Structures are given as C-alpha cells and as structure tokens.
Amino acid sequence: MTTPRDLMFVALDAASGRRPARGELSLALAGAELIDLIATGAVELDGDRIVPAGGPAPDDALLRAAASALVREEPYESVDDWLWRRGRDLSSVYRAALEAEGLLTRPRSLRLPFGAGGEPTPVDSPERRRAADRLAAEESVLTALAATVRIHDETTDSSDGSAGSAESVGLPDGVEAVLAALGDAELELAAVRQRRDVEQAAFDNIWRAG
User: Fold this and answer.
1) How far apart are CA 83 and CA 34, in angstroms?
2) Strand 104-105 to 77-78 pairing
3) For the chain, what is the domain count?
C-alpha cells in the first residue's frame, strides 16, 4: 500500500460532512504521491524544485505512473506546479483503480436494478484496515495530509496535557515543504471557488432584476 491509497481510503471512510471535495482530494493525492516518491528515493527536492533522483521504480502501478509523469529536464518542476498538473482529477483515477481491484463497491440503485448507483464505498479489506490503523495511530504523514483536507484534526492531546501535532513528532525530509505547498494550493482552490460563487450570484441577481 501507498500513502495516496491510504489517504483515499480515509477520505472515503470519512463522515459525509467531512468528506473532501474531489478537487481538494485530488491535490492532496498528488502531494501524497510526491511524498512517497521522496521516501523511495525516486526524487529529491532542491528548494521548491522536484529533481528526479534515479531511485528504483515503485512497485505500485499508480505510483509508477506518477514517477513517469515527472519533468526530467531543468529547471525541473516546482512542487506547486506538480500539485496542479498531476492533481487534475486524480481522485477519479484512484477511485477507478480501487474499484477495479474490488476494494470499492457501489450501492445498488432501486431505479437501476441491474446496475449500481451512488458513491463507491470501501469493502472490508486489509488495505482499508491498514489505512484506518495508520490514521488512528496518528502516523505523522497521513495525519498531516488528512488534516490538510479537513478529514482529521491534526492536533491531539499529549500525555502532559499540551497540544501536539504531526510537526511535533517530526516529518521526513522534504515532507514539510510538500505539505506547505499543498496547504497553499488548497487555499488557492477555495479562493477560486469563492470568486466563482460570488460571480454566479451576481449574474443570477442581474437576471432576477431583469
């Protein structure tokens, strides 16, 4: 299993009110892929640039696809550009892959008796339990990613009663930079959506006034 796969399970298992929108989740999945590529030695960060490092090809097919998508010529790609480019509709890619592997199922539709309808849900599987256990154990990387898309509260009570976070237990090299860029990208996406909502509301008001 990989961090993006674990994040996908955690997102699908989240309560409906905390389940992230596809855009936010897609950005986070791209960040999770980059974090795993750093961990495997496939890439290194030089400032905000993603530099291919010639590590072994990942075992996971989706992570191999991510590695194949790396920009391999100078000045290389920034973390921010990677998140937006690789993250385009990435949640649908992961959802389709997990469904094809039999790890997700769709509820039967009463109106479509021979087909399935609605959002897919994870089946009970070792992969799903591993993701849940990783989050329950407050593993720093997955906890931080889940907090970024507001699935999970990153802050927990420590034994002495003070607040702790993923940052306090330490993150692997490069991960904090990815998380910072991801946080900025999520804020930018929220701002774009807010502007669109305001513009749409103004447009609707013009039509009603006419």
Assistant:
1) 9
2) unpaired
3) 1
Tell me the torsion sign for CA atoms 29, 30, 31, 34: positive
Alpha-carbon distance 57 to 42, whole Å?
7
Reported as a single tens digit per residue, the pLDDT across 103-145 is 999 876 555 554 455 678 999 999 999 999 999 999 999 999 9
- Helix or strand (DSSP H, E) at 165: none
With beta carbons less than 8 A apart as the criterion, state whether 134 and 142 touch.
yes
Judge contact between 13 and 122, C-beta under 8 A. Answer: yes
**Structural domain of 53:** 3-209
The first and second tokens of residue 128, run together, are 């799903």
Q: Mind listing the pLDDT tens digit for each residue in 71-86? A: 999 999 999 999 999 9
